[in-house]
């Protein structure tokens, strides 16, 4: 089972961003890293200058590197950024089909979890268009997931760890919570490096907001689903970056995949590191996404 | 005149919409192939054929929404829906899934294809990609765009555009939202339902009415206060000491006053949300909007809005059409 | 339905008072007959209910001193009347005018619900299915009752006529019979 590190979903300052990818290159037992800005194009200028150095360091460490597209492309500037991605020479991870429009026919690309690939028809069409790898949407239930993993001509990846990306919007909830307009948000989402908790009126931990993105409050973990995923033919788990303890999370999943620890031990050791302090894996068992099979 | 595209959850609503002046009616089959897969709603094959014949006699079109994402291993259900829509005389199908659009283009080249709002095609590049690759003739624009952005899109695309002007409002980019399945296991993309009624529980708690979805408290209203349906993104939540509608107030979209601006922005068709609403609602809203588009077509001002009572939570918003909404 | 907030009429107590004294059985039998007749003439009602056709629906007109318990079964449709709150799978409560207006397409269910004129409890899915099925059937209760022959007609008809005259409540299909009261003639 391969491990892929997905694009960082949150807004970190340039120094934290640089250190994160330096440690990932030097210490994390993962084969593949997807970089770049997924959530909000306004964040990119703050760390853009760090990207080439990070790519070099990761590649020098023997890791495959891809660049993500934005999850939602609306503005002219965002269209420009998406077009430029194709020209970087790096593999592009398409997370909005807009990126596809800019990729030359036959160019290799990968498909990220925010593209709606729910069936063989879509999977097959993308493969014929040049897709070389795909991370399935997190909400896909186990039945369809097995069908797709079995039918896919390319390696299939599944969400393995991290707060689940549940929705994307034109509206910025961080700005709204701080009573600011999106255009003068003053980048207030940088205060919550793993997202800002949104609880119910009865104090139930439920969701987290991250600028224009909405995430699960609980941290998804595929630890218990791993045997089933492996049997279905899933090639890789995707681990989603978090501000603290991420290299340790990567090591735990490597140990789990290689049989050195079991899922219960991963639970026990990873729980203190989990954003939100709770796990979920309901999407992988066919229940509501919030459900947890390890309880 | 701008084309008025109106909802029909039942054959009775279809007739009500056509009689009230709809230029086109959109509807779906009674299964998970359409994004309003609610109990008691939607059309059998025979009802669709009858409805299409009725609409055509009155000079109206019927658009069939097959706008969920086919489930792996069961694609045949969606393929059959496209074929049956064509056979029933549909004037177009409204599709969201890339693979299903590709299938329809190949298997039914003569059937007009519209791109559903669920495809979240939010810029000219991706819209032209669908138009050029699959011959998509019209795109229903996601509710994340301002009027100025819609105008800019229309200058660059080789397809018609359709925008929502009234009814329930998604805060999230549609077709890109798994909030409902996170809480309930059922999602708009896979099951055609959001915040499904089967997972809603109301509880009277003293002087308040609490609404829970999948066990999560979505809102609590005082007795006698308006009680919007507990749609997840319109709920009342708490974040770091702040309590309120974190995502969106329980308001619904009313862009009737923006019709002249939308006409100026090059929009071809105006869409009314509400296949889950009654024929009474459909009749009232369609009548009002037909009068509005006729007024705009002849350069008269839009008649003042009279639809507040029908709105969710009885408050209306112009949503993303005003840039300040973001 | 007016574009303005509709004032939902509430039945005057004077009129509902006699209901406390009337025996429920004959009225329930008459209503059962009406319901069976409706379902025979509108088979789509049952089709639209799907699996919810087996549910028990408590229809509770909050301004009347009784509650209807509806079993929509395709061949054994039954209506019971209760003075208390009967056990049910789904309960729909509101002023009789709102409930009748819903049946006759004069009001929109969601709008009544948003304004809290209508309250739903229990199986929300079943309640929604019933509402949608009834909305599609374009029923005309006044018309159905008016053509009912036999001993039951006198049990219900005078009550309905009086109610409509006094309150202006929609007792016939709003779209089919704009004049309303003529619908009973």
List key phrases describing it.
heterotrimer; A: 295 residues; alpha/beta; TIM Barrel; 8-stranded parallel beta barrel; C: alpha+beta; Nonspecific Lipid-transfer Protein, Chain A; 5-stranded mixed β-sheet; 8 helices
Describe this structure in words.
The complex is a heterotrimer of chains A (295), B (326) and C (185). Chain A is an alpha/beta fold and 295 residues long. In chain A, 34% of the residues lie in helices and 22% in strands. Chain A is built from 12 helices and 12 strands. Chain A has an 8-stranded parallel barrel with strand order 1-2-3-4-5-6-7-11. In chain A, a hairpin with a 2-residue loop joins strand 9 (205-210) and strand 10. In chain A, helix 1 runs parallel beside helix 3. By secondary structure, chain B is α/β, with parallel strands linked by helices. Chain B folds into 2 domains: 3-169 and 251-325, TIM Barrel, CATH 3.20.20.70; 179-244, no CATH class. Chain B contains 10 helices and 15 strands. In chain B, helix 1 (11-19) runs parallel beside helix 2, helix 1 (11-19) runs parallel beside helix 10 and helix 3 crosses helix 4 (98-107). Chain B is globular. The model of chain B has no long low-confidence stretch (mean pLDDT 92). Chain C is an alpha+beta fold. Helices cover 42% and strands 13% of the residues of chain C. Chain C contains 8 helices and 5 strands; from the N terminus they run H-H-H-E-E-E-E-H-H-E-H-H-H. Chain C has a 5-stranded mixed beta sheet with strand order 3-2-1-4-5. In chain C, a hairpin with a 5-residue loop joins strand 1 and strand 2. Chains in contact: A-B, B-C. The interface between B and C is large, with 44 and 42 residues. Strand 8 of chain A pairs antiparallel with strand 11 (237-239) of chain B, so a sheet runs across the interface.
């Amino acid at each position: 089972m391969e491990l892929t590190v997905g694009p960082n979903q949150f807004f970190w300052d340039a120094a934290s961003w640089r250190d994160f990818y330096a440690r990932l290159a030097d210490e994390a037992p993962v084969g593949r890293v997807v970089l770049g800005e997924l959530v909000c194009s306004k964040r990119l200028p703050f760390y853009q200058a760090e990207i080439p150095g990070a790519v070099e360091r990761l590649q020098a460490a023997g890791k495959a590197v891809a660049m993500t597209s934005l999850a939602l492309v609306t503005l002219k500037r965002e269209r420009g950024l998406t077009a430029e991605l194709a020209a970087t020479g790096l593999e592009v991870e398409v997370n909005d089909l807009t990126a596809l429009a800019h990729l030359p026919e036959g160019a290799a690309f990968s498909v990220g979890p925010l593209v709606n690939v729910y069936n063989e028809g879509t999977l097959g069409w993308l493969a014929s268009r040049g897709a070389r790898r795909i991370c399935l949407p997190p909400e896909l239930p186990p039945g369809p997931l097995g069908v797709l993993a079995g039918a896919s001509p390319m390696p299939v990846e599944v969400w393995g760890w991290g707060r689940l990306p549940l929705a994307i919007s034109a509206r910025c909830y961080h700005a709204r919570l701080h009573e600011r307009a999106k255009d003068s948000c003053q980048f207030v989402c940088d205060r919550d490096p793993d997202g800002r908790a949104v609880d119910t009126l009865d104090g139930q931990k439920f969701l987290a907001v991250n600028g224009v993105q909405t995430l699960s409050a609980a941290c998804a973990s595929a630890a218990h689903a791993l045997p089933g995923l492996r049997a279905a033919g899933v090639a890789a788990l995707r681990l989603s970056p978090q501000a603290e303890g991420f290299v340790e999370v990567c090591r735990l999943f490597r140990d789990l995949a290689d049989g050195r620890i079991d899922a219960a031990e991963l639970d026990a050791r990873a729980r203190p590191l989990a954003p939100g302090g709770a796990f979920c894996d309901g999407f992988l068992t066919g229940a509501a996404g919030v459900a947890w099979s390890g309880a | 005149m701008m084309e008025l595209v109106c909802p029909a959850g039942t054959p009775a609503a279809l007739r009500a919409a056509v009689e009230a002046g709809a230029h086109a009616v959109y509807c779906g089959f009674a299964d998970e192939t359409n994004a309003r897969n609610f109990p008691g709603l939607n059309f059998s094959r025979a009802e669709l054929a009858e409805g299409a014949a009725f609409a055509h006699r009155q000079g109206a079109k019927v658009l069939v929404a097959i706008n969920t994402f086919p489930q792996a291993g069961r694609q045949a259900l969606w393929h059959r829906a496209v074929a049956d829509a064509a056979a029933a005389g549909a004037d177009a199908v409204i599709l969201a899934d890339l693979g299903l659009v590709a299938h329809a283009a190949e298997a039914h080249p003569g059937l007009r294809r519209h791109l559903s709002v669920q495809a979240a095609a939010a810029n000219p590049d991706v819209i032209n990609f669908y138009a050029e690759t699959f011959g998509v003739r019209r795109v229903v624009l996601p509710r994340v765009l301002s009027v100025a952005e819609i105008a800019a899109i229309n200058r660059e695309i080789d397809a018609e555009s359709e925008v929502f002007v009234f009814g329930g409002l998604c805060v999230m980019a549609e077709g890109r939202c798994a909030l409902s399945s996170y809480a309930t296991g059922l999602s708009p993309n896979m099951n055609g339902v959001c915040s499904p009624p089967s997972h809603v529980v109301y509880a009277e708690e003293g002087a308040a009415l609490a609404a829970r979805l999948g066990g999560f408290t979505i809102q609590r209203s005082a007795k006698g206060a308006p009680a919007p349906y507990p749609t997840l993104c319109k709920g009342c939540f708490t974040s770091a000491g702040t309590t309120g509608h974190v995502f969106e107030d329980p308001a619904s979209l009313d862009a009737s006053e923006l019709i002249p601006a939308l006409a100026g922005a090059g929009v071809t068709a105006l869409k009314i949300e509400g296949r889950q609403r009654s024929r009474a609602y459909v009749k009232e809203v369609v009548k009002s909007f037909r009068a509005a588009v006729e007024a705009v077509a002849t350069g008269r001002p839009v008649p003042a809005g009279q639809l507040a009572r029908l709105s969710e939570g009885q408050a209306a918003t112009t949503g993303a059409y005003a840039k300040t909404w973001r | 339905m007016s574009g303005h907030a509709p004032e939902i009429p509430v039945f005057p107590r004077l009129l509902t008072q006699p209901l406390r004294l009337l025996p429920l059985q004959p009225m329930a039998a008459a209503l059962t007959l009406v319901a069976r007749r409706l379902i025979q003439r509108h088979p789509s009602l049952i089709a639209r209910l799907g699996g919810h056709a087996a549910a028990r629906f408590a229809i509770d007109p909050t301004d009347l001193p009784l509650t209807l318990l509806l079993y929509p079964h395709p061949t054994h449709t039954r209506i019971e009347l209760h003075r208390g709150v009967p056990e049910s799978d789904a309960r729909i409560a509101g002023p009789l005018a709102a409930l009748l207006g819903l049946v006759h397409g004069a009001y929109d269910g969601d709008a009544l619900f948003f304004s809290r004129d209508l309250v739903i409890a229990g199986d929300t899915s079943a309640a929604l299915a019933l509402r949608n099925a009834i909305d599609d059937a374009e029923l005309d209760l006044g018309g159905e009752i008016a053509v009912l022959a036999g001993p039951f007609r006198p049990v219900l008809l005078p009550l309905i006529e009086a109610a409509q005259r006094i309150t202006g409540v929609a007792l016939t299909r709003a779209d089919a019979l704009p004049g309303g009261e003529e619908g009973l003639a």
